[in-house]
Amino acid sequence: MTDAALSSSLPGSRVGVNPWVVAAIVVVPTFMEVLDTTIAVVALRYIAGGLSATVDDGEWVITSYLAANAIILPITGWLAAHLGRRNYFLLSIAVFTLASGLCGIATSLTQLILFRVLQGLAGGGLQPSSQAVLLDAFPVEKQGMAMTLFGFAALIAPVVGPTLGGWITDSYSWRWVFFLNVPVGLLALAGCYVLLRDPDYLVAQRTELRKRPFNFDSIGLSLLVIVIVCWEVMLSKGQEWDWLGDPFWRVQTLAALFLVGLIALVIWELRHPNPVVNLRALGERNFSACCIIIFFAYAVLYAASTSLPGLLQSLFGYDALRAGLVMSPAGFFAVVAMPFVGRTLGRGADARWVMVAGLLTMAAGNYWMSQMNLDVGPGQVVWPRVVLVVGLAICFAPANVAAYLYTPLELRGAAVGLLSLLRNEGGSVGTSMAQTLQERRDQFHSLRLVESLNPLNPATNSFLDQAQHLFFQQTGDPVASHQLALQALENLRQQQASALAYFDVFWVLAVVMLVLVPVVLVMKRSVAEKGARIGAE
User: Fold this and answer.
1) Whether residue 386 sits in one domain with residue 238
2) Same domain (yes/no): 370, 412
3) Are 406 and 383 contained in the same domain?
4) In which residue ranges of the chain is pLDDT below 50?
């Protein structure tokens, strides 16, 4: 089918509009929303300082956004069905843009957190809506390229977010991190207003819903709020509060509420005739497998994306901008790789084996980083990062094609929301777990390294003698030179322990990617070919 013929029958846009124009417009809001999950992280200290708050309190700027975003994601299918997908998409863009402007002019931390909640609630509808439009706008055989374009936004945004945020904050002000969304949001709002319309099956679904008595699942929504808020706060504050060792029982309470709430949510929603969170899409084997793969793949991406800058800044002496420049080339190579992946899927390749290639590539990139040492230069850090991100680029489009290939149309809205939720939550889990693992392994290696630092160790004595001689030449004081030599040995021990901890994190991430490979084996054949029927075996 040619683009001209396709545009005349396109279910997600105005008649006669080229589908690629529609695709380019609808991924812009997704890019904005995903970017906002990472761009503010590097500006956190500046935000806290500018609003006269502590850095710990400033972390609620991130936590509030993620929690609000996660609450809305799984119910986007319900909202789109009742409001109309086009109306809901336009409303989400408008409120997200307005909230971004309000965040930029906030005069207190309380105001900023309130506006971030509003921004997160509106932003939750952007990813699922844009992805659903793309799935409806292209025939099955072209969905590989469509998901590739969506992948540009969902994958590149978290990669460039920290670098862009650091540059904007250093060059201008943290407020421009939020103001940046305003002109982009207005452009996206105008483009989507002109180009989009709802497909026939959604119009029929909405008409049918209007004939039924309105039955809002308030209990399901309440349980969802409890589950998500407990989850996000626990991930954000868990390490600070010592997880299950918290003497004030805050983490234990949150964990208990989360588990009880999750069990109650699943039971309630599966029995409710009109659930606000439709979990039935998880009954499809391909979709469930892809949810697991995407969740852990994004957990690994975010874990590596927070650990690597920490390594570069704390042990290599890089500033934020230089660390960002080291990480940025990976985004370029991902952009180059993704069209080839889309073309491969369009030619009838089985998405399962493309996903396996991506997972193995991600494992290789993390393992490469785990083998680094403190003598490597910037060029030797760039390439392992490139391999990691290119691996996710290879995995992303086939996972999104395979996830929806057998999902019935009536469950597609719910499925898109659930997968978007798991993708975002994977990032939250990866960030939290990487921080926890790094700190715990740092303590472990510090204790192990100190075991050999004793007067009976010839290497220790040799180092102290040489260091004391050097400091004596500088100070002329034997007591001070001895103390300085001991401090130098302690600094070296701390440096090596921290480096080993970071390398352990990358090693664990490599193992996680390898463990995911067998998940692909439970999936059904996933070929996006012409004539394939959505929801059919």
Assistant:
1) no
2) yes
3) yes
4) 1-10, 13-16, 531-537
Coil, strand, or helix at residue 205? Answer: helix
Same domain for 384 and 262, yes or no, is no
Residue 48 lies in a domain: yes
**364-386 pLDDT tens trace:** 999 999 999 888 888 888 999 99
Helices (H), 17-172: 19-35, 44-50, 55-58, 60-72, 76-83, 85-104, 109-123, 126-137, 143-171
Asked if residue 178 is part of any domain, the answer here is: yes
Cα dihedral 358, 364, 367, 372 sign: negative
Decide if 281 is inside a domain: no
Question: Residue 207 corresponds to which tokens in the numbers above?
Answer: 């008409």
Residue 448, classified by CB atoms within 10 Å of its CB into exposed (0-12), middle (13-18) or buried (19+), is: exposed
What is the structure's pLDDT at 380? 87
Q: How many domains does the chain have?
A: 3
What is the structure's pLDDT at 528? 62
- 38, 104: one domain: yes
DSSP secondary structure of 83-96: H-HHHHHHHHHHHH
For residue 13, what are the β-bridge partners? 196
- CA proximity to 369, closest of 332, 330, 397: 330
Range of the domain at 232: 217-272
- Structure confidence at residue 3 (pLDDT): 44
Contact 47, 58 (CB under 8 A): yes
Strand partners for 196: 13
Residue 453 shares a structural domain with residue 506: yes
CB 468 within 8 A of CB 447: no
Does residue 296 form part of some domain? yes
C-alpha distance from residue 379 to each of 323, 327, 332, 421, 507 (Å):
12, 10, 15, 35, 20
pLDDT of amino acid 100: 93
Mean of per-residue pLDDT scores for the chain:
84
Same domain for 171 and 90, yes or no, is yes
Q: Name the 3-class secondary structure at 13.
A: strand
